[in-house]
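Please fill in the sequence for the structure shown.

STRUCTURE ENCODING:
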């Protein structure tokens, strides 16, 4: 076959010389923007598989186990170290989490933190998983009728891809008396049980929403949390102040526009690490270490895991010129800064102090000695041994007893005194009630919930 080009105005019609040329062009026609978008995102999508008891009780004492329930969901990788965002309802109350990747490999994971009201949670994939960070778009310029793509673990069919359009914007949806959503994206891309927590993509392969709900009894009516709103919530969940009691002192604002996504410094706390580093209001934070910064999630994840002795390179844009600075974090929180002076942190034994674990939980705790760490096995790094339980306390009501090993409170491990102090002194402690706990007893992990009281008791 000979090749001929027929040009009419700006239109060209190609005739092909042979099968090889036809195959090449056919391949390019098949590789549509939708296909490229999925290829770009698939390594940053994780399938979540969960397990929990079929019957749950508020007390670990006397709980009857009637079997196990398997759950499923989807997550979006937001950091190379394994941090991923999903819906809180995917991981709420589960005992174990396992994730699978697009290459079929499987890894355990654990909950880092969550926001029940807005139905978002952060989990961390354990092990040496090969993960890509999802490319983040913006929901500020969504158009009715534009093509969107959902990727998720639909009914356990991992990495299911569906497509549709944006059907509506700013939908308010009430699931039940306890869960309501505001300002959701409505789409007709097929979303099924198991898609929860997965990405809603645009044709550039960027996340523009997090799939969260479907209309029961309807077909092709699904809803997603707009990504700009979700990223504000994720930043709070990833805050180093919340997760690690470290402080940078920089208050920022996300700038989200179709062609511009950047992080603006609004204020810097007097005397804070940010001020000492030379960061000023009006700066645009460009990069922290190796992380390119586009919003506050990038800021927090770039600082997560850093020690107070680390000298962290920071690049800011000021007056259209980039400047290199060095930031050193403080081991404190925003509340401990007053009048521009860093307040020292007081470390006290938690067992007997007023407002400590004896008062709040009804427990006297002691760190598990190094020579007894084998009691907790490879699953935990350590724990706090229960020395005494106060009568009529939340701990007593939940069946905790002397000899148990406390290995977790809420979403945090309890390896040492500082871990426990952090939880019971948390400014949002009341919102955690009932406070979930995990204990080891006779080699078995048990869990329950502590209903916290306002009254203070003496030992």
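FILLED IN BY: designer on duty
SEQUENCE:
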């Amino acid at each position: 076959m000979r090749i001929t080009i027929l040009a009419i105005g700006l239109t060209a019609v190609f005739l092909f010389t042979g099968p090889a040329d036809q195959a090449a062009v056919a391949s390019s026609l098949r590789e549509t923007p939708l296909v490229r978008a999925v290829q770009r995102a698939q390594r940053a999508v994780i399938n979540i598989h969960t397990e929990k008891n079929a019957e749950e009780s508020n007390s670990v004492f006397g709980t009857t186990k009637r079997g196990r329930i398997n759950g499923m969901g989807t997550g979006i990788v937001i950091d190379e170290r394994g941090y991923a965002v999903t819906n809180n309802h995917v991981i709420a109350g589960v005992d174990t989490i396992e994730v699978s990747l697009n290459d079929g490999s499987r890894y355990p994971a654990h909950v880092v933190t969550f926001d029940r009201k807005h139905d978002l949670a952060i989990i961390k994939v354990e092990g040496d998983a090969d993960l890509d960070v999802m490319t983040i778009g913006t929901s500020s310029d969504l158009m009715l009728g534009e093509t969107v793509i959902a990727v998720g673990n639909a009914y356990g069919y991992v990495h299911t891809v569906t497509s549709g359009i944006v059907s509506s914007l700013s939908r308010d949806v009430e699931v039940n008396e306890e869960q309501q959503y505001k300002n959701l994206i409505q789409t007709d891309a097929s979303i099924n049980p198991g898609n929860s927590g997965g990405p809603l993509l645009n044709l550039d392969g960027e996340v523009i929403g997090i799939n969260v709900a479907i209309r029961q009894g309807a077909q092709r009516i699904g809803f997603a949390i707009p990504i700009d709103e979700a990223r504000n919530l994720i930043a709070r969940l990833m805050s180093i102040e919340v997760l690690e009691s470290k402080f940078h002192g920089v208050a920022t604002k996300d700038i989200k526009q179709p062609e511009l996504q950047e992080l603006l410094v609004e204020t810097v706390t007097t005397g804070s690490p940010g001020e000492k580093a030379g960061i000023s209001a009006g700066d645009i934070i460009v990069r922290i270490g190796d992380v390119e910064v586009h919003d506050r999630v990038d800021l927090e994840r770039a600082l997560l895991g850093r020690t107070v002795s680390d000298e962290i390179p920071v690049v800011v844009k000021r007056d259209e010129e980039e400047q290199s600075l060095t930031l050193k974090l403080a081991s404190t929180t925003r509340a401990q800064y007053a009048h521009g002076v860093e307040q020292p942190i007081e470390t006290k034994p938690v067992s007997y102090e007023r407002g400590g674990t004896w008062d709040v939980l009804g427990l006297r705790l002691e760190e598990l000695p190094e020579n007894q760490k084998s009691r907790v096995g490879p699953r935990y790094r350590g724990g706090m041994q229960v020395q005494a339980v106060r009568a009529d306390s939340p701990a007593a009501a939940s069946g905790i007893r002397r000899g148990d090993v406390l290995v977790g409170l809420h979403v945090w491990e309890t390896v040492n005194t500082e871990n426990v102090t952090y939880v019971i002194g948390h400014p949002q402690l009341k919102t955690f009630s009932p406070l979930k706990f995990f204990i080891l007893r006779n080699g078995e992990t048990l869990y329950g919930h502590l209903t916290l009281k306002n009254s203070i008791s003496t030992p």
